[in-house]
Amino acid sequence: MPLKSGLTILGSNSSIPNFNRMCTSHIFQVENSLYMIDCGEGTQLQLTKFGISRNKIKAIFISHFHGDHLYGLPGLLTSYMHFSRTEPLLIVGPKGLKKWLDCTFEISQAYFDFEIEILETDTKVGTEVYKDDKVRVETFELFHRIPTQGYVFTELEKELKIRKEKISEYQLSVDEIIKLKRGETIDREEISIKPEDACFPKERPGKYVFMSDTIPLESIPESCMDANLLYHEATYLHDMKEKAIERGHSTSIHAALTAQKANARQLILGHFSSRYLETDPFLAEAKTVFDNTFLAEDGQFYPLHFNDHHL
Ligand SMILES: [Zn+2]
Ligand SMILES: [Zn+2]
Predict the structure, then answer these.
(1) Residues with Cβ within 5 Å of ion ligand 2?
(2) What's the pLDDT tens digit per position in 44-88?
(3) Ligand 1 centre distance from Cα of residue 213 (Å)
(4) 6-158+203-308 is a CATH 3.60.15.10 domain
(5) Which residues are known to be catalytic?
(6) Does the structure show a pLDDT above 70 at 309?
(7) Ligand nearest to the CA of 145
(8) Cα 263 to averaged position of ligand 2 atoms, centre (Å)
(9) How confident is the model over 179-202, as pLDDT tens digits?
């Protein structure tokens, strides 16, 4: 698995795993820190198939309690005893998550050698739910048949990167390099060296937004604007728009319009209904509205930063 920051799709289908497309689960990574979003049935198989280390998962974020987003979770957690996990694990999800897990583990008499911390949220109130040295995670409300929330992952500001040739050009000391990377100016008697004289231009922190399952949002929360990657569900093609809304879902055109409104750089479509053998028509439809669209494919990696893109 690449060490770049980005998204790996573990499952791109909706409720029924079919046509080699499993239920929803994503791995978002910032360098070597991994974060899971949703954990549908079959997620463990996908982790193994795509060579993703379970022990590197620092936290799990659940959008809602429909089985295609959740029913892989108890299996994943209980399997950790075979992987000698000792690091604590945070699981974030709507209110009711603790009750569901407690009941499951009490009845099956499951035990854990590591600490599981559960953070329950009110899906109507967008809030920061996680922060470490790499990333900040916030929730926002989605509109589905049961309480549902999306997630925004924002990279934290990184230190500037020094241009190697500038070290010898300016005869920089270690202390001076540290200061420049922090964005400070070096004042020498004869010259002052600004960070931009010796460092690469600052990279905009990357943002990944997860929107599934939902009808199209009427207004885009500020936190979701300007994402590098926006994942939006497209359960149906647009000729089924009435059925989509009735079932609390979206079409490819809805997803594309949302990407446009949210000023996203790239849109990834997923959560395809099992009624569709081929997913190419989703891409064709969405591209009529938002050109920079890609299809979610199980096992595919989508770099967070545009200049990393392999396509
Ligand atoms: Zn779903
Ligand atoms: Zn659902």
Answers:
(1) 66, 213
(2) 999 999 999 999 999 999 999 999 999 999 999 999 999 999 999
(3) 6
(4) yes
(5) 68
(6) no
(7) 2
(8) 25
(9) 999 899 999 888 999 999 999 988
The encoded tokens of residue 178 equal: 């540290």
Ligand 2 center from residue 229 Cα (angstroms): 21
Distance 267 CA to ligand 1 centre (A): 18
Q: Measured between alpha carbons, how far is 111 from 81 in angstroms, rounded to an integer? A: 9
Rounded CA separation 264/230 (Å):
6
Please give the structure tokens belonging to residue 187. Answer: 């004042």
What pLDDT digit, counting tens, does each position of 169-178 carry? 999 999 999 9
Tokens of 159: 């230190």
- Cα–ligand 1 centroid distance for 180 (angstroms): 47
| Domain-wise residue ranges, the chain | 6-158+203-308, 164-198
Q: Which residue, among 26, 103, 16, has the nearest Cα to 57 in the 3D structure?
A: 26
Q: Name the nearest CA neighbour of 134 among 263, 280, 35.
A: 35
- Ligand number nearest CA of 66 is 2
Number of the ligand closest to the Cα of 14: 1
pLDDT tens for 241-294 read 999 999 999 999 999 999 999 999 999 999 999 999 999 999 999 999 999 999
Q: Which of 158, 161, 171, 165 is nearest to 196 (CA)?
A: 161
When the pLDDT of each residue in the chain is averaged and rounded to a whole number, the result is: 94
pLDDT at 255: 98
